[in-house]
Design a protein that fits this description.
single chain; seven-stranded mixed sheet; binds 5-O-phosphono-beta-D-ribofuranosylamine; Formyl_transf_N; Formyl_transf_N_sf; purine biosynthesis; Phosphoribosylglycinamide formyltransferase
Length: about 200
């Protein structure tokens, strides 16, 4: 399965995907890493792994559609089968999401549908929840919505700072994102409408 990973920052999730795909029997190959931020450290991680990189700076395009057209051209020319958003901090238009429907997944640092959006760890602590976590899901037009593929839960401990909790969640992100990609690449999971099907069994 040919994969493109879209990033905007450190790319620690990208690194987890790189490490999974580097295994001999890996069912997926990262064809390209694309960042909308030129200085994203994730680009260094890709170069270290001999993976092609492209910067498409959204500030150089007037409007989302123009930026996404540039994105689409690169993805199309690489004949990518699946896009993984990993710390990619741009909202994608409905048009792009529909064009890549069911071939576009994302990781969100919360147990969706709780805590969509930003600052999820601070909000989880503020809300007093006892469990928090991460979600890998198929992308749908509405932000942080879509059929859930894998989740991981972590306890919120007394005295946790947002950083403490974030680190505990990130550790799980690095486990479930490669797992989700592997499941999809090995066709052990697929999406049908809004339902995720595991080996023929609806979740
Ligand atoms: C992570 O919390 C991830 O869940 C979110 O972006 C943050 C940074 O990810 N999508 P990364 O280290 O750039 O992969």
């Amino acid at each position: 399965l040919k994969v493109a990973v879209l990033i905007s920052g450190s790319g620690s999730n990208l690194q987890a995907l790189i490490d999974m795909c580097a295994k001999d029997d890996a069912p997926a190959e990262i064809a390209r890493v694309i960042s909308n931020v030129e200085s994203a450290y994730g680009l260094e991680r890709a170069k270290q792994a001999d993976i092609k990189t492209t910067v498409i700076d959204h500030k150089k395009y007037n409007g989302r559609e123009a930026f996404e057209e540039a994105l689409h051209q690169v993805l199309d020319s690489d004949k990518v089968d699946l896009i993984c958003l990993a710390g990619f901090m741009r909202l994608l238009t409905d048009g792009f999401v529909q064009k890549w429907r069911d071939r576009l997944i994302n990781i969100h640092p919360a147990l969706l549908p709780s805590f969509k959006g930003l600052h999820t760890h601070e909000r989880a602590i503020e809300a007093g929840v006892k469990f928090h976590g991460a979600t890998v899901h198929y992308v749908r037009p509405a932000m942080d919505e879509g059929p859930i593929i894998v989740q991981a839960a972590v306890p919120v401990l007394p005295g946790d700072s947002a950083d403490d909790l974030g680190a505990r969640v990130l550790e799980q992100e690095h486990r479930i994102y490669p797992l989700a990609l592997k499941l999809i690449a090995e066709r052990k999971v697929r999406v049908s409408g809004e339902k995720v099907i595991y080996n023929g069994v609806e979740n």
